[in-house]
Amino acid sequence: MIYNERDIRSQSVRDLAEAILVAARTAPKAKGRDLVEIAMITDEDIEHMSETMLQMSAESGMKFLLRDAANVLQAEAVIVIGIQTEASECGLNCGYCGYKGCADKPACTPCVMNGVDVGIAIGAACAKITDYRLDSRVMFSAGWAAKRLQILGEGVDCVFAIPLSSASKNPFFDRKSPRKPEPQPAQ
Prior knowledge:
CATH superfamily: NADH Oxidase
Shape: globular
Number of helices: 5
Mean pLDDT: 90
Number of domains: 1
Helix content: 40-55%
CATH class: Alpha Beta
Strand content: 5-15%
CATH topology: NADH Oxidase
Number of strands: 4
């Protein structure tokens, strides 16, 4: 039997994405507390994410969301990583958040260690993505849409997304700006 790479490309990316999920899961966490949430979305869920980003651009006026909404449609899978906020403090009383200790920190201020945990999970995922030579980009914008859609569930914050592709050229870099060019003065 002959398998043409073009025919199995999308499924191959999805299969590799499963191992990327595991790499993100096994990343070290502050005090051993595993509050990180990780998922993969594909197909119509990517389309829904893109539509949400378009809506968010219309609401906020942020033009980069238009570019990124078109960009995620070029992904064969998107990894989404965030953290549960139910236990918003680590209990270290380290003051790294800017408050004297955990008891002084307002509930709306995230524990720095939670953000660090998400960052380390993203780093572990990106290391595995590099091992597989997949095209990718860590995106705040797509993570923001994933948070709005509650892809990782209710109460999950600090969400980032990593679209994956196996194109001939990485579609997530050298992207065109959604801004109109400034008129040039007549010479």
